[in-house]
Structures are given as C-alpha cells and as structure tokens.
Design goal:
Elements lengths: L1 E4 L4 E5 L13 E4 L3 H27 L3 H26 L2 E4 L3 E6 L5 E6 L3 E7 L2 H6 L1 E8 L6 E8 L4 H16 L8
Antiparallel strand pairs: 1-2, 2-3, 3-4, 4-5, 5-6, 7-8, 8-9
Helix pairs in contact: 1-2
Length: about 180
C-alpha cells in the first residue's frame, strides 16, 4: 500500500499507483482539519470578545471596578469554550473508504459515526466568508439511516474534488449492491 499526500490535510492511501484522485475508488481518504480552519474558530472568539473588550476598556478608564469585574465574567466562559472548540476540531477526523464513511470526534469522550456510502442521500457544500477567503469549504453528507445522519467535513480545500469522489463511490456502491431507494413524494 502506497501512501501519498495531497493538499495539506488530506491523505490518500492507495492500493494501486495508477489511479487518479478523481477516479479513485480503491483507496481510503483520511481527512483532518487544516490549520486554516482553526482561524475560523478563533475568528468567532474574536467577534465575541470584541464587545466585552470594549466594555472592559470603558469600565477601566472610568474607574468602575465592580463593572470591570462583571465584564471579566464572560471571559471566563468564552476562553474555555473557545479552547474546547479548538480541541474538538483538533480531535476530529474523517475517513472516506470504498464502502463506508466514518467520523471520529470528541475531546473528553470520543465517538465514531459510521455509515455506508450506498445510503448517502444528499451532498451539500457550505462556505462562510472567512472560509472563502482562506480557500476552504465544509461538506455536509446526509444519510438515509434510522437516525438521519449528517456528517460535516470541515476545512476541505476548494481545489480538492471530495464531493465528486464521494458521489462516485456512493453510486458505485449502489450499483454493486443493487440498492434502490424508494421515497414518498
């Protein structure tokens, strides 16, 4: 098994060397969020901290110690919450196999979600304005399992055609297994 690396955060384990990324149906794709995605989390912290920081500055300049202490209180919530979100993102990983998609996540307790590619019902791409600026996107994959699973793959490079790879693999699994989904209209 040969291991190659593509843009920043995506590792492809290849069984054969002659398969291109777009038509690759024989290898697992392991994904971890890139460092640019952490900036998106920190950006949220900055916009939450900015009004509190301005209040702190005003209270400090006008010599209001009680109000200053009261304004410090949200920081004791925001800073641990942001650190938790960073750790949560750091501990997240996704593996897109030939027949199964899995998502590992969790800081204090870990959980892994698995679903078969033949049960994939929808694909979505999202980009916040900061992700657009950084060249990233978030891919949402929905499944028709009992729990109506939704896997959110964050921090994918806009150049990497992951959505096409998932679509090809899902169609291949449906055709190989003879899977037909009936829906009510």
């Amino acid at each position: 098994m040969m291991m190659t690396t593509t843009p920043s955060n995506i590792t492809i384990h290849k069984v054969t060397e002659t398969v291109s990324i777009q038509n690759d149906v024989f290898s697992d794709i392991a994904i971890r969020p890139p460092s640019k995605q952490y900036l998106c989390v920190l950006y949220g912290f900055v916009w939450r901290f900015l009004p509190i920081g301005l209040l702190l500055l005003m209270c400090y300049r006008h010599d209001m110690p009680l109000a200053f202490a009261f304004c410090l209180l949200p920081l004791f919530v925001l800073i641990p919450l942001t650190l938790y979100r960073l750790l949560y993102l750091y501990s997240s990983s996704w593996i897109i196999g030939t027949e199964i998609v899995s998502q590992k996540r969790g800081v204090f307790s870990a959980s892994t979600v698995y679903f078969e590619l033949r049960r994939v019902t929808g694909y979505y791409e999202q980009q916040s304005w900061l992700q657009r600026l950084l060249g990233l996107k978030t891919i949402l994959v929905t499944c028709s399992d009992k729990g109506n699973l939704l896997i959110e793959i964050k921090g994918i490079s806009t150049d990497f055609p992951l959505l096409d790879v998932i679509r090809q693999r899902a169609e291949r699994c449906k055709n190989d297994k003879g899977y037909t989904e009936f829906t009510n209209f």
